[in-house]
Design a protein that fits this description.
alpha/beta, Rossmann fold, Helicase, Ruva Protein, domain 3, 3 domains, 5-stranded parallel β-sheet, 18 helices, 45% helix, binds adenosine-5'-triphosphate, DNA-binding, Sigma-54 dependent transcriptional regulator
Length: 456
């Protein structure tokens, strides 16, 4: 069954005429296996058939959509429920999405197309999931994140060789490269190629944790070790037992913690803050930094003995601007994924925009490229991305920089700002805004639910 392309869909609709229309539209895909019910109870009675998708009329004779949704989800948490309502009600939509509905559609002239797209997207996700399960079963191992590293340039080919070597040898690995070049991605790839792949991959960004909390984050603490230590907590070293511990931005570790880390690595034991028991750990260490660690040593900010202990196999990630046509390969891949995930028409990049991307210096590297391309897909007024849709720093001096390096949040904030502007212009008319931006109404409802935007 996991390999099958069939999607089982229940249509729950008491209006016979409308039910017929929905069934007719969906029946145009021969892979959709359809069943129709007119009451919540009849739907519940047949959940044993394990439908993949349920389209649920909000007002059924024996129950409202939210109650029905709860009952369905209690019994079949995996099923995707698309609620179809007679009238648009933002509050209800938000509540339903919050309750786990996959989508919320309003009965209007576009419902059939939206339903078709929504179910189409679900089918793609479902098939991917099934394929994934099948492959895992077939090769008897977990998904290989090395496949997630895209690139055909010589630099990336060399990187694959190093990942392979690092996967086979159980030595420390130190990754360096500018922000957003893929250091964490590579660390994960090495972990999943190593014989520790069945153990955990634990990542800690040293720079993101306040100094006073870092020691307990890494090594754990005993109950009452300090104000606020209400319970005992194991640290990341213990958590990574039998797996890999990835310490990002290692150069930000202060000198006193550097001394503690060195001792832990020498003795292969940790002592929780406020405790005295020595706890052995078995984790492979990988570290990353965007700084030149040897320079940090020279300038006295990083201990030399720790540096040599951590260095292991050094891997340097090239900046994106040095990867030639990989830029376009990555851009097209990010664009395809983004359009698919957001039910947008597939976009392409015009020759002029491609030229611009190839010329740009990408200080935020792959992370920046991803954000630029996704934002361009939102801003583009047709299905082709043109140079004016690309928010490249320094390209348009009159505009504030749209993408902040190192921040995945920036795209979200920018998208929200655009949607908010449109909502303002179109007096909060969600259908109008969705149509103009070519995004699904459910995307807007989700943004409202997350309080990224608000109704004017
Ligand atoms: N070669 C690649 N193929 C596909 N995606 C990539 C590639 N390199 C990086 N990415 C994506 O770019 C983003 C940034 O990657 P990652 O977090 O690994 O970078 P980093 O070097 O660890 O960044 P930082 O130094 O800021 O922590 C992630 O979304 C990652 O999946």
């Amino acid at each position: 069954m996991p390999n099958s392309t069939v999607v089982t869909i229940f249509i729950v609709e008491d209006n016979a005429w409308y039910g017929e229309i929905l069934e007719y539209r969906l029946s145009q895909n021969p892979d959709y296996q359809l069943r129709r019910f007119t009451t919540v109870q009849a739907c519940l009675d047949n959940l044993g058939e394990k439908p993949d998708v349920i389209t649920l009329d909000y007002s059924l004779p024996d129950g409202r959509g939210d109650q029905a949704l709860r009952q369905i989800k209690e019994r079949l948490p995996e099923v995707a429920v698309i609620v179809i309502s007679g009238q648009e009600d933002v509050r209800t939509a938000i509540a339903l999405l919050h309750q786990g509905a996959y989508d919320y559609l309003v009965k209007d002239e576009e419902t059939l197309d939206r339903l078709w797209n929504s179910v189409g997207n679900l089918q793609k996700q479902l098939l991917l999931r099934r394929e994934n399960v099948r492959l895992r079963e077939q090769i008897g191992q977990k998904y290989d994140p090395q496949r997630a590293i895209l690139g055909e340039s010589d630099q990336i080919k060399q990187l694959f060789t190093l990942i392979d070597k690092a996967g086979r040898a159980n030595i420390s690995v130190s990754l360096s490269g500018e922000t957003g070049t893929g250091k964490e991605l590579v660390a994960k790839a090495i972990h999943f190629r190593s014989d520790r792949r069945d153990g955990p991959f634990v990542a800690v960004n040293v720079a993101a944790i306040p100094g006073e909390l870092l020691e307990s984050e890494l090594f754990g603490h005993e109950k009452g070790a300090f104000t606020g230590a209400i319970n005992r907590r194991i640290g990341r070293f213990e958590e990574a037992n039998k797996g890999t511990l990835f310490l990002d931005e290692i150069s930000e570790l202060d000198l006193s913690l550097q001394a503690k880390l060195l001792r832990v690595l020498q003795e292969r034991e940790v002592v929780r803050v406020g405790g005295n028991q020595r706890i052995a750990f078995d984790a492979r260490l990988m570290v990353a930094t965007h700084r030149d660690l040897s320079k940090e040593v020279q300038e006295g900010r990083f201990r030399e003995d720790l540096y040599y202990r951590l260095l292991g196999l050094p891997i340097v990630l090239p900046p994106l601007r040095a990867r030639g046509h990989d830029i376009l390969l990555l851009a097209n891949s990010f664009l395809r994924d983004f359009c698919r995930q957001n039910s947008m028409a597939a976009c392409s990049i015009s020759a002029e925009a491609q030229h611009l991307l190839l010329q740009y210096h990408f200080p935020g590297n792959v992370r920046e490229l991803k954000a630029v391309v996704e934002l361009a897909a939102v801003l583009a007024e047709s299905d082709t991305i043109r140079p004016q849709d690309l928010s490249l720093r320094g390209e348009r001096p009159n505009q504030p920089p749209l993408i902040v390096p190192g921040s995945d949040e920036s795209l979200r904030a920018q998208t929200a700002a655009i949607v908010q502007r449109y909502l303002q212009t179109y007096n909060g008319n969600i259908s109008e805004v969705a149509a103009r931006l070519q995004i699904g109404k459910s995307t807007i409802y989700r943004m409202l639910q997350n309080k990224d935007i608000h109704l004017p």
